[in-house]
Amino acid sequence: MDGQIRQVVVLYFITIFSLFSRYNSLEKDPPPPSYNYFEDLVSAGYDPQAYPSYFTTTIDDGHFKYLISQRTQVISQLQKLGVISAPSTKTVNVDDFGATGDATQDTQAFEKAWEEACSSKGEVVLEVPQGKRYQLKPIRFSGPCKSNLTIQIYGSMEASDDMSDYKEDTRHWLIFDSINNLLIEGGGTGKINGNGKIWWQNSCKINKTLPCKDAPTALTFYNSKNLKVQNLNIQDAQQIHVSFEKCNGVQASGLAVAAPESSPNTDGIHITRSQNIWITNSVIGTGDDCISIVSGSKNVQAMDITCGPGHGISIGSLGSKSSKAYVSGVTVDGAKLSGTTNGVRIKTWQGGLGSASNILFQNIEMNNVSNPIIIDQNYCDQDKPCKEQSSAVKVKDVVYKNINGTSASEVAIKFDCSKTHPCQEILLQNVKLQEQGDRTAKAICNNVKLTEKGTVFPQC
Ligand SMILES: *[C@@H]1O[C@H](CO)[C@@H](O)[C@H](O)[C@H]1NC(C)=O
Ligand SMILES: *[C@@H]1O[C@H](CO)[C@@H](O)[C@H](O)[C@H]1NC(C)=O
Ligand SMILES: *[C@@H]1O[C@H](CO)[C@@H](O)[C@H](O)[C@H]1NC(C)=O
Ligand SMILES: *[C@@H]1O[C@H](CO)[C@@H](O)[C@H](O)[C@H]1NC(C)=O
To answer: Where is the signal peptide (predicted)?
Structure first.
């Protein structure tokens, strides 16, 4: 008993100490990088009050989360050392529910394992064991669950390629719905494989005689808070690879996403109606956007991202069919794009409403990218031409800083903004783009209110 009390006291002090020392070191830290951004804006004659300070809140959030994770680490470290006892972990293995993992149907076993895992209390780990291949029809993993679950995907989950298996819901293969505090981690040779070939062949983008229909997203996280998604290997999705929809608080890291360059609409990571999303250290090469951020998304940070092939990092498209769209507080910091059709792009349809604002693209390297920097307020992804309309999704407060490399096309910078709603407060700072083969690139700038700082090449 005495011993237990002592352990609790020790834990308490260590935790307090760790929080404290972290807090103090925060105070001594140099100002966060966003500081310069504001200084720069101010010195460029901007009114800082006009800019909602999403950076500051993000950074604060970040440190807060860091403190929590620091505390969790202390606890788990103490548990490892045996100073405090770990609560016993319940492992739910799909094989115990009849999954064979021999590349035959295992859908029911996964459903049963999910029921068991989601309804159990305490520490629960749902395990997809290493070295196996599980073939799965669409599955909805629904919460809320009784515990904070961990799912370990060390074996492979492979999608059924029988299209009739998807007739109840053609939009999703694996969906995690309303599950808070979920940790999903991959590892070893485990893969999530959408087996998308059949869907690509039946896409109207590949076979023009076919009607346009949606295909399933391989992995969807819906209506969930505080998710961690780590080290997953995801390939050949039927359409989008990973989608975060209506989520708040996501840390995704170490994702490897791969599909052929020719596969239609196979976005890597798609973010919609979600907030506080961090994506770090991920490598994405597909047939469509590397990361796409669409309406209702706020406070999205992507750091240390490698893209290519594919269509690059996109905000939008926004405002299709005269819809109202809002995206704000997007930071892409540290990215390398190679052989993509766009670098960093904002695309909006004519006729929409709303805005895309407070966007920072920095420390980005382009390697043979067709449109390295592009804002397209006249986006039109349909067969018949889009008619001219006066309303538009506004684009404002966009910073491009420290961007270099090569353009595969002559036009390295393109601002094709709306006549009626020109792009506002666009800043280019230390941007240097050459056309591949050392030729001189150029910039096309229509209806844009632009500020340039440092070296900027090409210029409007
Ligand atoms: C689950 O995680 C949340 C947030 O980290 C925590 O507040 C809560 O106590 C946890 N619940 C359980 C049952 O462990
Ligand atoms: C396109 O689809 C049509 C209708 O299903 C089919 O007959 C045709 O063979 C397909 N073309 C190719 C190239 O797959
Ligand atoms: C650059 O990209 C273009 C068009 O995407 C391609 O044709 C060309 O082979 C690429 N060049 C290099 C050196 O990769
Ligand atoms: C771009 O900048 C980075 C960092 O300053 C540098 O390492 C890299 O060589 C540059 N790339 C090109 C193509 O200039």
So the answer is: 1-25
Q: For residues 286-314, b (16+ Cβ closer than 10 Å) or e, as one string? A: bbbbbbbbbbbbbbbbbbebbbbbbbbbb
- And the tokens for 211? 């009607």
Q: Is the peptide bond before 144 cis (omega within 30 degrees of 0)?
A: yes
Q: Which two tokens stand for residue 178?
A: 């309303």
Nearest CA to ligand 4 atom 13: 405
Would the pLDDT of 50 be above 80? no
Distance CA 273, CA 243 (A): 11
pTM: 0.83
Nearest-angstrom CA–CA distance, 195 and 159: 6
Asked if the model's pLDDT at residue 365 lies above 60, the reply is: yes
Atom of ligand 1 nearest to the CA of 122: 13
User: What is the distance between the alpha carbons of residues 433 and 75, in angstroms, rounded to a whole number?
Assistant: 48
Closest alpha carbon to 429 in 455, 450, 410: 455
Nearest in space to 293 (alpha carbons), one of 358, 353, 237:
358
Ligand 2 atom with the smallest distance to the CA of 207 is: 1
- The pLDDT, as a whole number, for residue 88 is 82
Active site residue 311: yes
The ligand that comes nearest to the alpha carbon of residue 144 is 1
DSSP reduced 3-state for 8: helix
Cross-strand partners of 302: 279, 332
Report CA(430)–ligand 4 centroid distance (Å).
12
